[in-house]
Specification:
elongated, mainly alpha, 8 helices
Length: 225
């Protein structure tokens, strides 16, 4: 069960980083292609955006993970305090939880008494079944930050790489569109598969959002120029 939770969190962080990493640099490079004839400034701008995006997204992931840990610890301490201050109320809440799950009232009382014999187990029970909170890993913030930042970096270099490899702006733009759309389709497929969404719908949705973002940036740059 613990391994499953870790994998779920990892997948979520990869999705967050990769989705933004593909769409934002793609939109930026496509927009700049509409007004610049040389790849030099596009590459510099793309690298700057990827660097800033990695830092921003990674920091956001770290703060979110740290907040999750702190929130859990605060609520856990509150449960311990309530068990000490109002044990009968907390015991009644345990009984109500079991009753709500379909356990007979008399049996709920017996099981609640059994649970209450160990305060650590009691507090953990309340966290999971009353507050619906799972204990996060201690290194959750750092792992989340690193995963999101690396995913953003990988995603960002996909639309930027043709501008690095080819000096011709037109060729680079066309290849960037091609490889990024393919990457969005592949990413959308695996994202839908991992999250249990309909494969076709999820794949089209991810690809469509990326194309719309890039198209809007390209047309805006053209209009401004």
């Amino acid at each position: 069960m613990e391994l499953h939770n870790k994998n779920t969190t990892l997948v979520k962080d990869i999705i967050i980083g990769m989705s933004d990493g593909l769409t934002v640099p793609f939109a930026l490079t496509a927009g700049l292609s509409g007004v610049l004839s040389t790849n030099h400034l596009i590459i510099i701008s793309g690298l700057a955006e990827i660097t800033a995006g990695c830092i921003s997204m990674g920091l956001g992931g770290y703060l979110a993970g740290q907040t999750e840990v702190e929130h859990y610890e605060t609520e856990l301490q509150r449960e311990y305090d309530e068990i000490e201050a109002v044990p009968f109320i907390e015991l009644k809440e345990v009984e109500d939880i079991f009753t709500g799950l379909g356990v007979a009232e008399q049996l709920s009382k017996q099981v609640a008494l059994q649970v209450s014999k160990d305060k650590n187990r009691w507090a953990d029970f309340m966290m999971k079944l009353e507050l619906k909170l799972e204990k996060p890993e201690k290194d959750r913030a750092a792992v989340s930050a690193g995963t999101i930042a690396i995913s953003y970096l990988v995603g960002g270099f996909i639309p930027l790489s043709p501008y690095i490899l080819f000096s011709d702006n037109h060729t680079a733009f066309n290849l960037s569109c091609l490889v990024t759309i393919l990457a969005l389709i592949i990413f959308g497929y695996f994202k839908s598969k991992m999250t249990g969404q309909p494969l076709l719908k999820g794949t089209i949705k991810v690809a469509f959002i990326g194309i719309i973002a890039a198209g809007a940036a390209f047309l805006l740059a053209k209009a401004v120029s």
